[in-house]
Each structure stands twice: as structure tokens, then as C-alpha cells.
# Entry
Amino acid sequence: MFKNSIPGMEKVFKTDIEPPSVVLITGPPGSMKTSFCYTLMSKYLESVNQFGLYCTLEESSKSHLRNMKSLGIKLSPHMQISDFTDLREVDKVVDQGDETDYIKFIEKMIVYFKKKYGDKFSVFCLDSLGALYSLMEDVNKMRKRMFYFFKMLRDNNITAFIVMERSADAESQLLGNEGFLVDGIIMLGLDRNRGKLVRYLQVEKMRATQHSMEKHAVEVGKEGIVVLGPIFDTGE
# Structure
């Protein structure tokens, strides 16, 4: 998944993840969380005969694809892009007076594609967790709800990437203690190195893999994101 997708990821991971896995992709605005997930999924699906679902709640599918195209990232024919309007269509079937439960809608979407593609449906991305919470009317008992949501993803043998906005000095959780429930956490951040802002990737947690915990510089190449190598602290 990681080692045969984004160029340079082999510098970060000695061994790769195995499905099922739930991985948080965290970082502040502008750290390219969306671009990272989309590049990773698109490149991976190019090399395997499988299917992926990308659920974006922060922008329309059209806007999302336009942004990815501007980075040189091509749409994989094996990936479905779903946005907020798709969830609103599902919402129309809910009786008036009922609370809107977007977690259930996403679960139904995953079940639908799992029935359609079977074991070929292997990769999913939710972009983002904060947007999902902002849509929900009832955010009580979110740790329990997210526990079962992540369990559902694992039960379907899916590798899932959950995008979550977060500053570098903040904890990796929002309403549901997500950092404790997931299998992995990747931080995408901005670091000032030698007077310049450098985008970086850092693995904070990844179960059952051998990986570096150093910050690795990241840049956008002609065909999407590229991992350049470790950022060394110059003391400046």
C-alpha cells in the first residue's frame, strides 16, 4: 500500500501495512492531507485490480477532481468519488423528524460497494472527520460510535484513511478519542528549515509495521506528492 504508491515512501516504511487497517491522516491546513490520500489511493489502485471509495465532505466531487488535476494527479478508473450531495440524496429517504445520521449513511454506502465489488473493494477515505462531525446533530457517545464505525471498516477487510485537521502540538483526537482507536497515525505538517517552510510527513503510530519516526520532507512533483527524505534539525 505505502511502499508501491507514493515515490519515496520506501524511505519511511521498511514493512508495509496489511488490511484491514484504519489510519488517521492528520495535520494543519495547507499540509496536503487530501492530496496525500488521493495520490496514495490513485497510485495504489493503478497497480492492482481493486476498487476504492473516496468520500469528500469538504468540497464537491467536481472541485476535488479539479484540485487534484492541478497537481498532476490522474483519476483512477478504479476509484469512486462521493461528496456531500450524495449523502444529501440518501438523507431524502429519512422521515421528517428523524435525526440525520451521516455515519449510518457512510456505512450504507460502504455496504453497497462491498456487495457490488466484493473483495475488490479494499480502500476507503473519509475526508474529513471534522466535516462529518459538523454535519451531525447528535455527537454524544462518539468514542463508542467511532469504535463501531472503525470495527465495521475492519470487518469488511478495508484499508481506511481518515483525514483529521490538527495542529502540530495538538492531540490526535476530536470527539471520539480517535487516536487510541486507529491502527496508525500519519502527521503531515509544516516545518521551518533553514529559513524556509518545508512540508513534511511523520509516522507517529503504525501497528505491525517497521517504520521511521523521523520527519521526511514532502513536495509536489509532476505527478503528485513525492517523499524526498529525512529533515535534519540544524538547530536554527
Notes: The first helix runs from residue 33 to 47. The mean pLDDT is 87. The longest strand covers residues 196-206. The two ends are 36 Å apart (CA to CA).
